[in-house]
Amino acid sequence: MLPPLFGGFKVTIRQVFEPRVTTQYPKAKQPKPPRLHGRHVLNRYEDGMEKCIGCELCAAVCPADCIYVRGADNPPDEPVSPGERFGFVYEINYLRCIHCDLCVEACPTQAITESKMFEFSFTNRADAIYTKRELVVDDDGKPQQLPWEDWRKGEDQHTSAWMRATSPSGSADYEGEVQWSGELGYGVRPPEGGQSGKRDDGATGNISVRVVERDKISRRLGGRAR
Amino acid sequence: MGDPLFLQGVDLGVFVIAVVKVVVAFVVLLVSVMLMIWFERKVISDMQNRIGPNRAGPYGILQTLADGIKLFFKEDLMPTEADRIVFKLAPYLALLPALLIFTIVPVGGVVTIAHHTVELQVADPPIGILFLLALSSAAVYGTMLAGWSSGSKYPLLGSVRASAQMISYEAAMGLSIVAVILESHSLSTRTIVGVQASSIWHWNVFRTGIVPFVIFVVAVTAELQRPPFDLSEGEQELVGGFHTEYTSLRFALFFLAEFMNTITMSAVIVTLFLGGPDGPGFHVVRWLWPILWFAGKTLVFLYCYVWVRAALPRMRYDQLMDFGWKFLIPLSLAWLLVLAALGESRPWGIAVLAACGAAYPLLQRSRDVSRQRRLLAAGEADLARSQAPPRPVLLRPVLPDEPVGGDG
Predict the structure, then answer these.
(1) Burial of B276 (0-12, 13-18, 19+ CB in 10 A)
(2) What is the distance in angstroms between the Cα of A220 and the nearest Cα belonging to chain B?
(3) CA distance B166 to B137
(4) The complex's ipTM?
(5) What's the pLDDT at A165?
(6) Which of B42, B44, B47 to mutate to test the interface with A (most CBs of A within 10 A)?
(7) Pairwise CA distance, residues B224 & B230, whole Å
(8) B52 to chain A: nearest residue by CA?
(9) B45-49, B151-155, B392-396: which has the minimum mean pLDDT?
(10) Between A and B, how many CB-CB pairs are < 8 A?
(11) Chain B contact for A13, CB < 8 A?
(12) The pTM is what?
């Protein structure tokens, strides 16, 4: 046995032959967990109507005071939302938003949800304030992609919200219960079955960090790298 | 003795050859520093499962150049409390010894250029290795004056640490060099390399019995302020150490000096202990093989320095001083005495070895006593009493039974 002082030499030289854990970020991205809180979207129903009814609950609950909503009565001949009122002005200031998801939980119509995209670096304050025109999803249910936002292929999926507050009787075991809000163009995603085994990560889009890293962690430490 | 280039007087050819040697050595050293910084960053990221610099040039090999250019254009700051002249002078004092030490390192064999016998080293002064000792002592000035002239407390603390450390380890380093001189009967680096030639068993590392080699490598690491002896720039305690207040090009000069010293000292280790450019040659391009051997051996040491940096944590200051004064210096001194006596005759060697053995308990006692004093100073009276060093047998009946360490 080597004295502990020299054990360090063994460890360091062994690491030389282990695979690298670096992700070359701008070129490649790590997969994101399905419940990540990113930039918001304003959802629409399948018929194209906006879900927002201008109730301002999101603005009321926002701890960072970043949401500004003004409701207005729907024009009778050309209604914007199925309800009586609609969100006439909707603005989110991303210099203030902390992505806590409380607006999503407060929303009675699941109108506002968070996408998984957090890589947006605007260069002036006007760009930081997203207006309704920029937040509403397009006719296919896809979020709009602004010039300073880094969307990659497939990242416009999974913009629906995990409905934590509506979990049946607060039970932790939510297996088999639909827990995702509807997503225009994609429908309702299958629920996660994480907490009592029997998970189907392929169907739910759930990604365990262990799975992501498995190919990079050596066998000796329980991974799959050679 | 001396440089054979100057034996037949100095004419234009000799002058040109000398100038070319200086320029080539300077350029090679600067380029190798650039590569060394890249090499260190790559190797250490290998050992940490990272990729390391990979943006500038293929495999990031130009990263150092990019960093240098960046530093060149940075704002040059000077603290108001700084001593202006010394503050400006210090980086050059740090750089100069690093450049000069390399001049005495034989990087290759002896070649003939235009009827002149040319040794492949910049200079071969008869004082040889003394030049190294003088300059490595002078290197303390760069560090010390940099810290002092900054007019700021962290640099001062860093430089005080550095000078104490360098002076402490210089003794062990010098004693192990004396062992080499004993074996090769010469101060000239060319002769030292010459007597080691032709067989691996002639290398000084074996002729002096490995211990001086190990001591020299450790002492040099401390001398270079490299991990695990980099207390003078302990980031957690001293911000950046002696170069905290330095910016821009002067900061770059300190780093240049640090890495150049690493390369130079690796080269010196190879020269003193591993036969320098010695190694099997082949009949094609004969002059090239010694240079390759020299570069290869140096590279091994450079890799080891990076490895040590990745593997070992920084030492505590008292550990550093204890290690230097109570372990390295006595060991190298004892080894040197035994080696010198063995050179005389075998009975002498055994006698000196016995004397050193007899002196060992004395050393051990001094270590015990100092540990006890330290425990007492730290308020650990109970621990100090339980770990009290045994009283020497001869003194036992004389001393009354008093509590230990009353005067701490």
Answers:
(1) buried
(2) 15
(3) 8
(4) 0.71
(5) 45
(6) B47
(7) 8
(8) A22
(9) B392-396
(10) 31
(11) yes
(12) 0.77
